[in-house]
Amino acid sequence: MDLKGINIGLAVTGSFCTFDRLEPEICRLIKLGANLYPIFSANVQNTDSRFGSTADFISRISGLSGNKPVLKIEEAEPIGPKGFLDILLIAPCTGNTLAKLACGITDTPVLMAAKAHLRNEKPLVISLSTNDALGMNFKNIGLLFNTKNIYFVPFSQDNPAKKPNSMAAKTERIPETLAAALEGRQIQPVLCGQAAAG
């Protein structure tokens, strides 16, 4: 897959348990020659969890990308008029962000980036991670799946015995999903076998 020179917006929301699986894929994208522009939700900026310091994570990812992170809504808005992103990746995309995106709400830097980017009719890729994918958010997945220029990283139930409504993306398939989306294709199959427990 050829991602060399591609400008990718990396929009990160607060599914903290997936950060350790996301970071190697960020490194892969950089090795493939992509230019990453990190965007962090307010929850990522302000919430530490049992999975580690988000300040350290932000610093690490921003350092790897070599670009200043977008941390405020007003910093995300110019993504639209400047049009410098080829593709936007929301990874991980929480159920909260998914629901707001489906309803056109833009109250975080990530959601403003998505709105600004989509106005340019360029691809947006969702790497899902939510405990209510097969519950309250099922309708939003369906809505966004049928929305022009929105694509999904393949996903599956991550712990069907203990969390039957939970689904998580196969993060290792992020690069190929991005490459397909840049060609206007949804990578298949979208629904896969069980993901790693999170």
Produce the secondary structure layout.
Blueprint lengths: L6 E6 L6 H13 L3 E6 L1 H5 L7 H12 L7 H4 L2 H4 L4 E7 L1 H8 L6 H10 L5 E7 L7 H8 L4 E3 L2 E3 L9 E3 L4 H9 L16
Parallel strand pairs: 1-2, 1-3, 3-4, 4-5
Antiparallel strand pairs: 4-7, 6-7
Helix pairs in contact: 1-3, 6-8
Protein name: Dipicolinate synthase subunit B
InterPro entries: Dipicolinic_acid_synth_B, Flavin_trans-like, Flavoprotein
Pfam families: Flavoprotein
Explain how this protein is built.
By secondary structure, the protein is α/β, with parallel strands linked by helices. Helices cover 37% and strands 18% of the residues. It contains nine helices and seven strands. Strands 1, 2, 3, 4, 5, 6 and 7 form a seven-stranded mixed β-sheet that branches. Helix 1 links the parallel strand 1 and strand 2. The chain is globular and about 45 Å long. It starts with 6 loop residues before the first strand and ends in a 16-residue tail after the last helix.
Structural key phrases:
single chain, about 200 residues, alpha/beta, seven-stranded mixed beta sheet, 9 helices, 7 strands
Report a brief summary of the structure.
The chain is an alpha/beta fold and 198 residues long.
The number of helical elements comes to: 9
Q: Report, as a whole number of angstroms, the end-to-end distance.
A: 28 Å
* Structural class estimated from helices and strands: alpha/beta
Helix content: 25-40%
- Estimated share of beta-strand residues: 15-25%
* Unreliable segments of 5+ consecutive residues: none
Order of helices and strands: EHEHHHHEHHEHEEEH
| Rough outline | globular
Strand elements, count: 7
What Rg, in angstroms, do the CA atoms define? 15 Å
Mean pLDDT: 92
Major pleated sheet: 7 strands, mixed
